[in-house]
Amino acid sequence: MFSASVHNGAETASLASTTTRGRRRQRPLSSENSPQQPKAKRPRIPLNDQTFVNPTAAPETYEVKSARPSMVELKQDGVEEPPASKQELSFRSKKARPGERLSKGDGSILLSTNIAFDVRKLPALPDRLKLDATSRQHGFADSSTGYALSLSHTHAVVWPYATHTQSPESFTFTLPYPSKHSTDRLPLGALVPQSASSSEPGLVVVMPSSGKVTYWESISSATTLDFMRQQRNGIEDSITGMFSGEMVIQIIHAESAASFILTFSSGRMAYLSVRDAQGRPKISTQFLRTNLGPASSGFFGSVRHALSHASIQGDIAAIRSERSSKHGECAVVAVTSKGRLHSWRVHRGGHHDLLAEVDARNAILGAIQQVDKANARLPAESLKILDFSFVSRDLDQKYSDMSQLRQSPKSEDQQHLLLLVSLSGKQTCRYTLVEVVLSTSISPENPIEIGMVRPISAYSTPPDSHALAKPRLYLPRPNIIAFLVFDHAAVVASIAKPPDSPDSQILEDNHLLPASFEDVVDLRADPTLEIVGSGIEQPQGHGFNTSEGKMPRIRPKNPAAILLVRGAGTLRIAVTDVERFASEKPPEVTAKIKLEQAVFFGVKEDNPLVFDVQHGFRFSDIEYGAAALELSLEILTSTGKHFSTLAARVDTNIKERVQYLEKMMMQIKSLKVNLDRVTKWQLLWNAEKLHVANVVWHKHEEFTSLRPANSKKSIVAEIVEYIRSEEKSEPNAAKGEVDELRHWFIRDADRMEIFIAWAYEVIKHNSKANLDQTSLTCLIYEAAEIYNSAIQDAFRFRTRNLELYGLGNEKLEHGILASGYTGLPTPWTCHPFIANNVKRQVELSTEWVKQHWAADSERQDTTIQRIRELLPQMTEVYLTVVQELARSYVSSDIPKKAADGQNYERIYEQDRYAKVVLLAQTENWEAGIRIAENHESLAALAEILTREIHALQTQLATPGLSPDQIEQLESKVDAREEQVRQCFETYGKDFAFPYYEYLLTSFGIDTLLGYTGDKTYKTMYLRTKPELAKVSWINDIIDEEDIDHAANTLLDLGLAREQQVWNKKIELSLGKLARMAESSRPSSKASTSLQDANIDGTTEDAQVDAIDKELAIIEVQDAVYNTQIHPVITVALEGEEMSLVQDTFALKIPKKYKILSQIFDDALRRLVNHEALDPLTLIDLLTLITLPPETKDHMPDQFFSALCVAYNGLQGAERVQAERLIWRRCYVKEDWTQLNNTTLKNDNDIAEILGQTHLFSFYCTLYASQHSGDKNNYRRLQPSEAAGVYTETLDRRFDQMEKGYREKVLEAMRWENSNLLKYIEKHRLDQWAKETRKFAEDAVDQQYDETTAAGAAPSSPRSVSGSARRQSKALEGTNGQNGKTH
Predict the structure, then answer these.
(1) Given this model, what pLDDT does residue 301 score?
(2) Rounded Cα gap, residues 79 and 81, in angstroms
């Protein structure tokens, strides 16, 4: 009955009782079957308070059998007419020793616990019931006798259910009148309280269909069977007067120990007595006069009439009795399923008086609907009374005040009841506890009083009509807790008064009850598991009425319900502190409590209870999330009543806690709780920490096994010791907690990120303490193992358990989130302390290996070799950690964290190259390649491949190698070169560019240009590198044979990027030459149209024109350098060239406008350094410089040269502004104040002065240039046209300059402009400019005439300018002779 295994062995059948009482029993066939003499009985010790303790000897089983041997094997739940069997009675087992009492160590198994009650499986269970787990049986537990009864169709088993032994002293009775069919109703039975002559109870069994009654006076009496045989008619009898088809459905105790009330399916009731007036065994029955069923026989007494009568009143749902204070009396109440209540006073012998008969249906329904609106929506016709219980009387006042129930009436004519009522719909069933006071003194209009109405919200499963036991309601003393027992569940419901509060007062005023404690104990969905019987244990206090003046055997301090569970055993639901329910802080069912039950007890495979049925407990997802986080932390820290700080095996302790976490997530999943994403990740991270704790512990044991006997303290123990006290829980030495290491793993696993980070710190501290090299090497190795195993296992655990934690849709890369960190806390695996110290550990380990490891060493230190082998894993761990940290911080809403995240991103970008390349220093080539590919560090991949190939080639060059060694090395080189080619194909330019970059920087241009494994990406690389334009030009000519692109490369370099003037001149010249050569080649495309040819020609002309303009500018710069600067440098001392040049050409301007000197000095320095000057800078140089008279004529006029630079290098408005600046500086180059003063000066003097001005030279050169065929139409600007330039805005060179700098330049420009305006306004500069131009043009014309007359070729502008000055003197003489003056 109570075990998962099924007993298939033969059972001894019961006595074949005759259907007619007068029929003789068949004689035995031989003497073997003759009745044996009774065996001598051992002296018995009466049962006392110490009976139910663990006996010192193995218990024995008593089996009472009939007189003939068994000839038929009893099948499971089969009912057959058995032959007579041989009488056999076993000896009783040894009694319990005095002094032994029930205690917490009672051998029971804790199946569940919460803040309000415990559920335990009691150890005592007869072997017969353990082996039979599927038969139809039912029973009950009786705390007054201390025994439980189990009844099947063929047997009755009685045993002390509260004893401590697993196989208790039990009594098995073979029923003399078994059922004929397995579908028949199960026999009914009751334990008869022990008589004065016996210490054990008796047993009465009633067969429901036949009405056969069997009574055993004492379950342990060895003479009972003989007495039964001799006085058979007195202790076996039938109920007379039963209708055809009528069955006994209930049996309850009446007013005395040996009397009972029987209830029949017809609604009738009968009084059953098993003792006569003298106390001798005798069975007698007497039907009671009631209105619940037909009282006569015949047609009106038939089953049909009974059924029709029952359909009106309803079936009898329950019948209960309450003993009276008067001896020999009791009150009996029967309740029909449709709400009719009947009460009687029953006297000894079956005499009875009707006290009340009430139809309470409408009153009960109205009260329920008024209190519970959910019930109001259910159909009224579905109301059913399932069970009821008497409310205990004569309680202490304090307990009466604690309960919501009314104070029990003092008159015994009033019955105080608590009903279990149900209302059902199509898919739901709601239960309610209703308090009823039934009395004859109440007015006929209102015959009952309705008190408390207490809805049950935690359980709504409809009752199973095929269940072996009906729903039961128990209300144990002191009327604060009610137990509702169903076929697969039991409900614990509080009916205590809630603490006073404004909310509770409002609810009370509205006839509503505040929420009280409710919880459900559910059985697993297993067909063998079913509650087939129950009972209660209740504390005894003032006013307890004992049966026959004897105290109950079981006297607990708090109420408890006993469940007989088929397939499991006997369960006790015991309240831990009943008075707490009426306290200011009563117990409350929370999401955390429900999770705890599932986690700590749901992991047990043999637990018959299940914890994933929600019933009415609908906690919000937020509540479940908070509860899960709190419980997860408690599991990590081993806090709470379910944990101990002692663990003989730490790994076992951690594995159990890991199972708890898994069970918690399975429970949440089964409850369909939708946790938020942050909570899911936090729960997963907590589980990772616990898993890593187990990994680290195993590493610790591995380290200690490798260490010598005198050095067993591994780095794990060192870390725990070094961690600061505020970052760990200190063991309590007063409680015997002396092992700090084990204590940390049991209590501090939630701080795993601190533990891991401290590994490097331990090495650092020991290094400062001058630890010897061997020990330090060992610590470095152990730290590397810790970092690798802990973090890698955390990532693997995370990947495996995403689905369990509801994160199956998350995308991971190398164990970390690829994206979606917004809103998430920083993962523990990338704590900044871990990231920093893993990096330091990688660097330390690499340096340590470099110092103490050699590849060709034959006697290599094994620990060093292990560290070298761990370096790749540790490098990958570090890169993954810092990548995760960067992603997490960048996604933060906190500005500082986001900024730190960008910094970590830069660190990751740097270290995924630098730290991977470090692996090449320890020759971890293959691992370095793999990590570089994993983290997409193609620059590191290219470098490692190149360095390995170079290392192999270096080895090949080593003399003295054998042919095999050479072949092996060449094979490796070929393999790596092939891998390089594969990388070109796989990654394209992302790999090729870093590869060529490393070739160039490490091995030079020759190696780069000489690499033949690829052309496409090499050319692409060179062409995208402006600084390698010269190399790209060579590659275009040699490898690509692309002269056109080579020309473009040189021209682009010369026109846009070249800084050295000589290089620029060469590049432009070569580019122009290549362009001209390419354009002169015949087109390879015969189909080229004339239009395309014209377009190409136009493009070529534009490019050549641009080249010519740049060359013209370079020519001007070269002229300045060669004619003016170089002569100065040649006479300067070494190292003083620049100083001498600056002194020679220093500007003479006011100190206030020294910014012009700075601009001029910068241009002069760049000119000396042969830098290619931009047009605007060269114009500044030419217009500000003062040329020495002796070298002035060695180059064209400086202002004309500046104008040429403007026309060749500038365009649009920029050129116009530059022209105005050139003319303004030319005008202010002379002091027109003196020139304008012609007083006492003849014409020759004035002409000579004008001939020496820069303006005269400028005009001469311009006019001569025009005559020499210069295509540029240079403008001549009057002083007023040049005024105002660059006084408000500056040219583009100064756009990025500081505002103060720009203001100084503008101030200098305004100073120049003010001088020009002064000359215009006060010294007639406009007129003097016109005169100077006319004078200069006349001089040039005269020079050209003289040259033409002499038959010489026209002179250049430079020679014309010099000749014009000389010609001006001749003009002076002519003018003087003519007497012309200004």
Answers:
(1) 41
(2) 7
Q: What is the pLDDT of residues 500-539, one digit of tens each?
A: 766 655 655 554 555 689 999 999 988 899 999 999 999 8
- Its sign, for the CA torsion 640, 646, 652, 655, is positive
pLDDT range class, residue 278, cuts 50, 70, 90: confident
pTM for this predicted structure: 0.72
Q: List strands edge to edge, sheet with 316-323.
A: 316-323, 329-336, 340-347, 352-359
The 10s digit of each residue's pLDDT in 1344-1377 is 888 787 765 555 555 555 555 555 544 444 343 3
SS3 433: strand
Output the DSSP codes for 924-940.
-HHHHHHHHHHTT-HHH
Q: Is 170 helix (H, G, I), strand (E, B) or coil?
A: strand
Residues 611, 135: Cα–Cα separation, whole Å: 26
DSSP 483: E
* Confidence (pLDDT) at 548: 44
Supply 545's token pair: 């009425």
Reported as half-sphere exposure (CB side, CA atoms, 13 A), residue 962 has a value of 3
Sheet holding 281-287, edge to edge: 248-253, 259-264, 269-275, 281-287
pLDDT at 55: 43
CB of 177 closer than 8 Å to CB of 195: no
**If residue 560 lies in a helix (H) or strand (E), which one and from where to where?**
strand 560-566
Give the model confidence (pLDDT) of 1186-1207 as tens digits. Answer: 888 888 888 888 999 999 999 9
Does the bond joining 1354 to the residue before it have cis omega, within 30 degrees of 0?
Answer: no
**Burial zone of 1317 (CB within 10 Å; 0-12 exposed, 13-18 middle, 19+ buried):** middle
pLDDT at position 633 is: 94
328/348 Cα distance (integer angstroms): 5
The b/e string for 826-841 (b: 16+ C-beta within 10 A; e otherwise) is bbbbbbbebbbbbbeb
Q: What are 1304's two structure tokens?
A: 């100084």
Residue among 394, 479, 465 nearest 433 (CA): 479
Bridge pairing between strands 530-537 and 138-142: parallel
Label residue 687 by pLDDT band (50, 70, 90).
very high
CA distances from 899 to 821, 888, 890, 1157 (A): 15, 11, 7, 44
Range name among 87-91, 610-614, 1154-1158 with the lowest pLDDT average = 87-91
Q: Mean pLDDT across the stretch 861-889?
A: 93
- The burial class, CB within 10 Å (0-12 / 13-18 / 19+), for 1269 is exposed
Q: Taking a C-beta distance cutoff of 8 angstroms, is the pair 492, 116 a contact?
A: yes
For residue 1271 the two structure tokens come to 């295509």
Strands 170-174 and 61-64: parallel
What order of strands is seen across the sheet that includes strand 212-216?
Answer: 188-192, 202-206, 212-216, 236-238
- Among 1010, 995, 1114, which Cα is nearest to 1065's? 1114
User: What is the chain's Cα-based Rg?
Assistant: 56
SS3 of 508, please?
A: helix
Q: What angle do CA 426, 432, 434 make, to 5 degrees?
A: 140
Instruction: Tell me the CA end-to-end span of the chain in Å, nearest whole number.
Output: 145
Q: Is the pLDDT of residue 238 over 70?
A: yes
Three-state SS annotation for 621-646? HHHHHHHHHHHHHHHHHCCCCCCCCC
Distances (CA, A) of 35 to 42, 64, 88, 154, 755: 21, 13, 10, 22, 80
DSSP structure string for 175-218: -SS--SSTTSPPPEEEEEPP-TT-SS-EEEEE-TTT-EEEEES-
Yes or no: say if 208 and 107 are a contact pair by the CB < 8 Å rule: no
